[in-house]
Amino acid sequence: MIKVVNKVEEILDFVWELSVDDFYASYPRKKSLEQVKKEIQRSINEDEKSIVAYYKDNELYGICCYFWEESEKYVQTTLFLIKDYYEDIAEELISYVSTQLPGYELFIGFPDTNENAREYFERKNIQCIEASIVTKLYNLQCDISEKYPSVERITENSFEEYAIFHDEHAVPSGMYYNSKNLKKDMELFRVFALREHGKTHGSTFVRAGKGMSEVFGVFIDKEYENNHFISNLINAMLMELYNEFGTVKEIIYFIDEDSTEELNSALSAGFQVIERYRCYKCLL
Question: Which helix (H) or strand (E) is 230 found in, with range?
């Protein structure tokens, strides 16, 4: 039986227990009980968000917490936690979301350690749109003295020219943050472009904050795919974050499993490998 959740307390312990267990966890990762509580409360109270629970014989077995954007026909889970009977409950939860949001694309993310999730989606031939290495840098300290004249920050005035390069890379990958959506949320992001001979050949963009920042990607033209240019982008980005915020507590950075040069550049800049991540896309 599926039930819309209206009270935090009825699912809080279940969500916390599974969120901290690598074998059951989903993405985004939750670090504290308080963070879990806030996520559930927002999903109960805010528009274009919902949270449902699956019960079997009056026992709680699954949770699906999600938000959607009608204009994009986009829906993403923020919690997708199943205790047992994975296949049956996953299908029930996804089917429920499908009846609520027909025609949308549903994105569900997990750490690679959630074997039940990985096996279910692979068995169902549901498309894995991202297989990444999760890296983090803690307590950013900037001892970079080098200048990066080929890297410049993109502003509102230079965004339209940059958008062409951005979409050449973002659109084929199916990334949510194409230039239209990036521009809409531009106040949250810092965007840096690698320019050589008057043209953009690489970029990185990061959702920036003092407590937590997240690198959403590095785009680079093939002829510039080497440690020198990628390192310049990453180091310039870190230097600018430090100049603006000082010590950033945590920076998270998802790197495609096949991007060896990008991973090596991130590790050289001080990032550490944490785990692997999978994201699947379901057509509802």
Answer: helix 227-245
Which residues lie below 8 Å from residue 83, measured CB to CB, with a gap of 6+?
Answer: 14, 18, 24, 60, 61, 62
Using alpha carbons, list the distances in angstroms from residue 181 to 72, 128, 167, 260: 10, 22, 11, 28
DSSP symbols for 231-242: HHHHHHHHHHHH
Q: Where are any strands of DSSP class E within 145-211?
A: 151-153, 189-196, 199-207
Contact of 199 with 227, CB cutoff 8 Å: no
| Residue (of 82, 138, 19, 75) closest to 282 by Cα position | 75
**Cα(39)–Cα(54) distance, integer angstroms:** 18
Indicate whether 132 pLDDT > 70: yes
Q: Rounded to two decimals, what is the model's pTM? A: 0.92
pLDDT digits (tens, 9 = 90+) for 209-256: 999 999 998 999 999 988 889 999 999 999 999 999 999 999 999 999
